[in-house]
Every structure is written in structure tokens, then in C-alpha cells.
UniProtKB/TrEMBL annotation:
Its cofactor is FAD. PROSITE patterns: GMC_OXRED_2. Pfam families: GMC_oxred_C (PF05199), GMC_oxred_N (PF00732). Keywords: FAD, Flavoprotein, Glycoprotein, Oxidoreductase, Signal. Gene3D superfamilies: FAD/NAD(P)-binding domain, Glucose Oxidase, domain 3. GO terms for molecular function: flavin adenine dinucleotide binding; oxidoreductase activity, acting on CH-OH group of donors. The keyword rRNA-binding does not apply. FAD binds at residues 102-105, 244. Residues 284-298 form the Glucose-methanol-choline oxidoreductase N-terminal domain. SUPFAM superfamilies: FAD-linked reductases, C-terminal domain (SSF54373), FAD/NAD(P)-binding domain (SSF51905). This is Pyranose dehydrogenase. The active site is at 508 (proton donor), 552 (proton acceptor). Belongs to the GMC oxidoreductase family. It comes from Mycena albidolilacea.
Length: 574
């Protein structure tokens, strides 16, 4: 049941308390409550997702993300790698978490990413072959909204059909642009081969975009894992507007520190919820390390300096943050009015598109507007990046770069543009999430650390070269006009300056409560996702992923949460 008011909760004692009703938290809540004997409470700080039109309608993404109502409204610290710039750092503040306000891109990463996690943790359960069933379990492959013939656009063998999260190909055609992207894979097959499905574990090449959309609507952990038939379960309680501050009532269990309760604020009052079996932090890669630190789990020096009584010295908490830097300067005017501007720059067509979505869940509003295809590529073997740092990718089947191809752009409303967004998906830079106050409700310090390694700058420069090469295919001639940022003739140094002044975020933060092998001298959770050295406490969300995969991170978070839920069920025989 969904509760808006703490006074309506029947009690505060449960088997499991889950902190955060986001992407991962709702998966764990759903799976645990399959057993009617298990009582679960989810504490979500944010609002309800019900009736949030800009979350439901995929094409309204650009209105949703900056909407401060549904965001924690964080800002990063100034980052030296970005010439001292800080930037808004979006995290969702409503049920469903970031799955309810992200770009809906559905990518899983490379088999090599997961095989590296298995090696790092000494647990084969995180390897590609063993994690793939969890991707399939969470997924419901769905027809696109326009029911077009999808043969040759994806591989049905690598998709699940019975899970709670709908995934589909775009449901509105941008045919001229789409044909040009596909034609490029024929004209430059060596550099940009066509890949039938980037979600097979072998993502290299150019594939059709897949998104967490079904029947023209965004699919989220709230609409999927908390769908009416699940949220109706009498053993599942979800409380909104409940911001957790810290874990309290420190005790000892089985020779280890443990916590008797979870403190949260509802309105102006503090409450404590109790878990007889386990507390699970699913507050995301910003929220989970913050709660650990507030609770006295982290580097002793940080905690002591703030006057927080240390419970366990675990220096890796909040460290090792990795995220994909993203560059949007590769944008051209185009000789076509078949672009997103035909809708976003025309109030009548915009209103018509929205009306069409409302009446039939068809038309241009059924897609996210992120793009039509995604390409993954490697740096050339002799790239100067490898002189700066050894190859950070997990293996030869994993990319260094991602390009997203979009028949639209940013900037002048109404201008017909195309964009190739470039992201480094094997970044070397690392950042952190920490606190500088003993007020548990004070915002944390977020430092994604973008471009702190020269490797990532060189990789972006290489990405610019690859994007130029992509549009050098004959099919683009006569279509492309001037670039909106003139990069012709820039020296490497000038391009580096431009990159540092214009790189943005992909919001794919992971690693801030990273898993490592049992007994390792670093890391925050063991391979079974229990916090090292603490009894009765797990973290299950994007923060446990130890190194950012070559993927937008929602699908990976779902798969990790599915396995995390199985690990809990095994541990508690429930
Ligand atoms: C703007 C943006 C665009 C993105 N685009 C994509 C994309 O296109 N494709 C993709 O795959 N990935 C994308 N991502 C990344 C992806 O969505 C996230 O990696 C993933 O959803 C993280 O899941 P999570 O469960 O770790 O955290 P979240 O989904 O953020 O869940 C955490 C939940 O905990 C709650 N919470 C936090 N602190 C507390 C507290 N103290 N007390 C109570 N509740 C708390 C939050 O409100 C939230 O609901 C994007 C992310 C963002 C922000």
C-alpha cells in the first residue's frame, strides 16, 4: 500500500526496511514481498509519481529533468578538470527515482564489464553469463508505438518478455535521418559497423536505440515494480515524504556493529523504523553514501572532524565515484525540416503532438527525443591516450566511446539541427560524494571528478574525430550545413580548452559504495552486497557497481537489484 501520511502506517516494525523507492529499491521491495509472510517498508523522501505528465510522456523529457519539483536540486563542487566549473547534478525526488526522470535509454554494457566485476569481487555471480538472466527477468520487450516492422532492428533472442519494465524501439519515424545513419554503416563498415543489437553483451557498432518505453509511455520502477497488483500487497508499505537521516540505535550482533533502526523525518518530526532482519540502503549513488557517513560509517578522519561518532572506519565510502563525461559540441545545421525543431519550434504541431499522445499514445511524443541510434567504438590502438594511462576498458569487446545520433539539437528553438553526442564510457577520472556537516539533512558534496585524467580529454578529442569521420560518409553531403560551434582548424590545445569548458554530465554515477572481494582492503560492500564489517545492513543500488559500465546505468541497476533481491532471499530463506 502507498502511504502519504506517516500517521496512517499501521506500525514501524518490519522484516526489512528499504531506504529509497527508486530504480533499485522498488525491485527489492517487489521481490521480497512475493512471500506474503515478509513485511517490507519502503521510505521514499520524494513525492508520488502519479499524474506527473512530464514523466509519463516520453517527449516531455526536456521539461521534466530541469523541473525542480521532482529533483533534489544538487549542484556539484567546482571541478578543476572543467576549468573550475560546477553544474547542476540531477537526481530524481519522486517514486521511481531516476528511472522516472532519466533519458530512458536502455543499454546493458559489455560482457567484458561484468566479467571484470566477477574478477574484481571473486564472485562469478556478477559475470555476464550469470547476470544476463537478471536483465531478462526485469525486461518486457514490447512493440513500438507505431507497430512498424522491427525485423532487422534488434535481436529478439537477447530480450526478456515477462518482466515489469517495458523496453521498445522508437515508435515514431524520422526516416530521412534514420536512413542516413544506417547508410553510413554501409559506406564506412569498417569504422562504423552495423550491430543488430547492442544489448547482446557485444555493443561495438551502430544499433537502433532501445528505450524503457511501452505503449508510448515511460516505464519506470514505480509503474513496473509497484504496479497496482504489487502495491496492493498487504505486506508491502511505501511511505512518501520520508527522508532518512541516518541509522540509529547502534548495537552489536554476531560480533559486529549493527543498527536497530532507521531514523527519518516526516514533516517536522523524526521517527524511527525498525527492521528485524535487514536494513537496505537503495538511496542511490548520492543518497546511500551520505546516509552511511551520517551514521558513522566512513573514513574516521572525516567523521571525527565533523563530530560524528565513528561506528566503523570504512574509508572507501563515497570514494571511487565514476561517471561518463559527455560532450554536446558536435552539432550541425541541416538541410531538412524533418527534425525535432518541426515540433519543438512550432507551437501548433507541439499541441497537436501532445493531443495525439493523449488520445492514442501515438505520434512524436511516444519517444524520448534522445535520438534514433547509438554507436559504440574503441580508440585506435595507437591513440596517444594509452601513453597517459593503460587501457581502462575491461576487454577488447568493450567500447571507450559512445555516440548518440539525434535529428535535433540544443540551442535556437526552431533551428533544424542534428547532433552527435559523445561520451567517454571507459573514463579513468574518479570523484567522490562526501559530507561537510553533521546536519544529516545538509546537501552532500558531489564531485564527479570529470576530466581529472588527461586520458578522458584525449578520448573526447578522439570522439570528435570519429564524429567528423562519421559525417564524412557520402550520404551526408548536401544534408549537413555549418556546425553550431566552429571547430575547424582548432589545435589540440584549443580543442582541449573547448572540451573542458563545454563537457557536461551523463548522470551515470556509480561506485560510491562499491563492491569488492571479501577481505579486500578497499570497497564498501562484499559481493553479496552486505556492508563490510556491519551486521544486518546492505546497499542495493547503482552505488555498489564498482566501475561505471559502458552503458547508461538504469538497466544495470535493475539487474543488480534483481540479483541483490535473490541474495537477500537466499540469506533469509524467504
Ligand atoms: C538526468 C538523468 C538522466 C539519465 N538518463 C539515463 C538513461 O537514459 N538511461 C539509463 O540507463 N540511465 C540513465 N540515467 C542513470 C540511471 O537512471 C541511474 O543510474 C539509476 O536510475 C540509479 O538508480 P538508483 O536506484 O541507484 O538510484 P535512484 O533511482 O536515484 O533512487 C534513489 C531513490 O532514493 C531516494 N532517496 C535518496 N535519499 C533518500 C533519503 N535520505 N531518504 C529517503 N529516500 C531517499 C530518492 O528520492 C530516489 O527515489 C540518468 C540519470 C539521470 C539523473
Amino acid at each position: 500500500k502507498l502511504y502519504d501520511n506517516v500517521a496512517d502506517l499501521p506500525g514501524l516494525k518490519y522484516d526489512f526496511v528499504i531506504v529509497g523507492g527508486g530504480t533499485a529499491g522498488n525491485v527489492v521491495a517487489n521481490r521480497l514481498t512475493e512471500n506474503p509472510k515478509i513485511a517490507v517498508l519502503v521510505l521514499e523522501a520524494g513525492l508520488s509519481n502519479e499524474g506527473v505528465t512530464s514523466s509519463q510522456v516520453p517527449f516531455l523529457l526536456n521539461q521534466l529533468i530541469p523541473d525542480s519539483t521532482y529533483s533534489w536540486n544538487y549542484t556539484t563542487v567546482p571541478m578543476p578538470g572543467l576549468n573550475g566549473r560546477s553544474m547542476p547534478y540531477f537526481r530524481a525526488f519522486f517514486l521511481g527515482g531516476c528511472s522516472a526522470h532519466n533519458g530512458m535509454v536502455y543499454t546493458r554494457g559489455a560482457a567484458d564489464d561484468f566479467n571484470r566485476y566477477a574478477t574484481l569481487t571473486g564472485d562469478k555471480g556478477w559475470s555476464w553469463d550469470r547476470i544476463l538472466p537478471y536483465f531478462l527477468k526485469s525486461e518486457k520487450w514490447s512493440p513500438p508505438a507505431d507497430h512498424h516492422d522491427t525485423r532487422g532492428q534488434f535481436n529478439p533472442k537477447v530480450h526478456g518478455t515477462k518482466g515489469p519494465i517495458s523496453v521498445s524501439l522508437n515508435g515514431f519515424p524520422w526516416s530521412t535521418f534514420e536512413q542516413k545513419v544506417i547508410q553510413t554503416t554501409k559506406e564506412l563498415p569498417h569504422e562504423f559497423p552495423f550491430n543488430l543489437d547492442m544489448n547482446s553483451g557485444q555493443p561495438l557498432g551502430v544499433s537502433w536505440l532501445q528505450s524503457t518505453i511501452g505503449g508510448g509511455e515511460r516505464s519506470t520502477s514505480a509503474t513496473g515494480y509497484l504496479a497496482p497488483k504489487f502495491i496492493r500487497r498487504p505486506n508491502l508499505h511505501v511511505l512518501l515524504h520520508a527522508q532518512v537521516s541516518k541509522l540509529v540505535n547502534a548495537t552489536h550482533k554476531a560480533g559486529k556493529p549493527a543498527f536497530g533502526g532507521v531514523q527519518f523525518r516526516y514533516g517536522n518530526s523524526l521517527f524511527v523504523a525498525h527492521a528485524s532482519k535487514e536494513i537496505i540502503l537503495s538511496a542511490g549513488p548520492v543518497g546511500s553514501p551520505q546516509i552511511l557517513l551520517n551514521s558513522g560509517i566512513g573514513a574516521h578522519s572525516t567523521l571525527s572532524a565533523l563530530g560524528i561518532p565513528p561506528v566503523l572506519d570504512l574509508p572507501s565510502v563515497g570514494k571511487n565515484a565514476s561517471d561518463h563525461p559527455s560532450l554536446f559540441i558536435m552539432q550541425w545545421e541541416v538541410n531538412s525540416n524533418e527534425t525535432f525543431a518541426s515540433i519543438t519550434g512550432n507551437a501548433t504541431r507541439f499541441a497537436q503532438g501532445l493531443a495525439q499522445w493523449n488520445t492514442s499514445r501515438t505520434g512524436p511524443f511516444v519517444d524520448s527525443g534522445v535520438g534514433t541510434h547509438i554507436g559504440f567504438s574503441r580508440l585506435p590502438k595507437h591513440s596517444s591516450a594509452f601513453a597517459v594511462h593503460a587501457d581502462p576498458s575491461p576487454g577488447p569487446g568493450a567500447p571507450h566511446l559512445e555516440m548518440t545520433f539525434t535529428p535535433g539539437g540544443f540551442g535556437a528553438v526552431g533551428a533544424n539541427l542534428m547532433t552527435i553526442d559523445i561520451a567517454v564510457v571507459s573514463p579513468v577520472s574518479r570523484g567522490s560524494v562526501t559530507i561537510n556537516s553533521n546536519d544529516p539533512f545538509a546537501p552532500p558534496l558531489i564531485d564527479p571528478g570529470y576530466l581529472s585524467s588527461e586520458f578522458d580529454v584525449i578520448a573526447l578529442r578522439e570522439g570528435v574525430a570519429q564524429a567528423k569521420q562519421f559525417v564524412s560518409a557520402p550520404v551526408w553531403s548536401g544534408y549537413l550545413g555549418a556546425m553550431t560551434t566552429d571547430i575547424a582548424g582548432l589545435s589540440d590545445l584549443e580543442l582541449e580548452t573547448l572540451i573542458r569548458s563545454s563537457t557536461g554530465s551523463s548522470f551515470h554515477l556509480v561506485g560510491t559504495a562499491g563492491m569488492s572481494a571479501r577481505g579486500a582492503r578497499y570497497g564498501v560492500v562484499d559481493p553479496d552486497l552486505q556492508v563490510k564489517g556491519i551486521s544486518g545492513l546492505s546497499v542495493i543500488d547503482a552505488s555498489v557497481v564498482p566501475i561505471v559500465p559502458a552503458a547508461h546505468t538504469a538497466a544495470v541497476t535493475y539487474a543488480f537489484a534483481e540479483r541483490g533481491a535473490d541474495l537477500l532471499k537466499q540469506r533469509w530463506s524467504c
